[in-house]
Amino acid sequence: MSVPKVPRIGLIVGSQRVPRACLQISEMVLKTIQDTNPSAALSLIDLLEWDLPMFNEPGVPSQITSPDQYTHPHTQRWSKEIASYDAFIFVTPQYNWGYPAALKNAIDYLYNEWKGKPAMIVSYGGHGGGKAAAQLKQVLHGLHMRPTERAVELTFPDREYLVKAATGQSLGLLSDVEGQDKLWDEERKHIVESFEELLSLLRHPRDN
């Protein structure tokens, strides 16, 4: 009897800004999921570490079916990385009612590597980042991805948290002090619910 394959899920850290809050928020999302789904195969994909230049491939991504068909080594590496995952979680801030250019750029490099795969969106900002999430969801639909119905919006509760986030200070998201309320306690439940929807999409694939 064969052992069922555990889906590989890439959690994309959608901001390259330094300093930034995106990495610690992404780590919180990852830990929240792992606490309730310890067998989940999750990996962080940090766009700051990838540092992709502005899209510079001469070919049209939708016409490319193999990493070797890309011109640039950085695109070939990015293609192989994204192709190795079965689904994605996008963690994104909201900038001026939209999501970061670095995230759009990373998406635009590829097409078939994204196509047909389930996706989940976690946005954050002073008002939760809902406009960024809506724009990103539209783009994912354009790639024929399968975004979850529930998008998770994380709202900073006050100006103190906004300043901490903007300057890269710790938000205390991974604190486990007994009896102490965590930031976004309720929203962490939404993260788990959205992830369960993502798993359901993985269990019910569709033909591309």
From TrEMBL:
One Pfam assignment: FMN_red
A cellular-component GO term for this protein: cytosol
Molecular function as annotated in GO: FMN binding; oxidoreductase activity
Domain NADPH-dependent FMN reductase-like span(s) in chain numbering: 7-150
Residue ranges of the TM segments: none
Protein name: Putative flavo protein
The organism of origin for this protein: Byssochlamys spectabilis
